Amino acid sequence: MIETLTPAQMEAFLENKYIGHLAVTDAENRPYVVPVTCLYDPESHSIISYTAEGRKIDALRQNPRVCLAISDIQDLSHWKSVIIEGTFEELKDVEAMKGIQLLITRLQHIINDEGKQQVDFIADMARANPQNPKVIYRINIDKMDGRYEDGEE
User: Fold this and answer.
1) 11, 30, 98, 110 — which has fewest CB within 10 A?
2) Domain spans of the chain, in order of start
3) Closest Cα to residue 133, out of 92, 84, 86?
4) Does the global pTM surpass 0.90?
5) How far apart are CA 124 and CA 11, in angstroms?
């Protein structure tokens, strides 16, 4: 049976996830969905992420309204999903540095706790690269909905 997550359950779920699918709309009103590395910041009740210049950031700058889906799917009857509607905000200067530090620190912790892989690559996110500059951004959450199914009837 499909159930609704409470706000506290949604926040607890988001605090341990770092992969989502971001839906944007470009200038020609074409939808575009792309996987992103991101994390929930409970202090600002927002999502922090980063990207390089390209189609996604162009679309975000043209139309800041977004939808982000974060899911954990075990099988057809054991899953959780949170859908976030929000507004893109590009971070600059000190705010960008705070955002990237939060990403680095939290991602290292989450991935290490999972025991899945080495996290040395995460520190590369903070390194400046003039050929491929990173854009740090926040999704200010306007609305969150969460659902789950645990196999119980």
Assistant:
1) 30
2) 2-150
3) 92
4) no
5) 28
63: its two tokens: 């139309």
Which fold, 2-150? Pnp Oxidase; Chain A (2.30.110)
Alpha-carbon span 106 to 127, nearest angstrom: 17
Name the amino acid, one letter, at 3. Answer: E
* pLDDT tens, per residue, the chain with 153 residues: 999 999 999 999 999 899 999 999 998 999 999 999 999 999 999 999 999 899 999 999 999 999 999 999 999 999 999 999 999 999 998 998 888 888 888 887 777 666 656 555 555 555 555 566 789 999 999 999 999 999 866
The residue count for the chain: 153
Q: Return d(Cα 40, Cα 29) in angstroms, integer.
A: 27
Element (H, E) at 9: helix 7-14
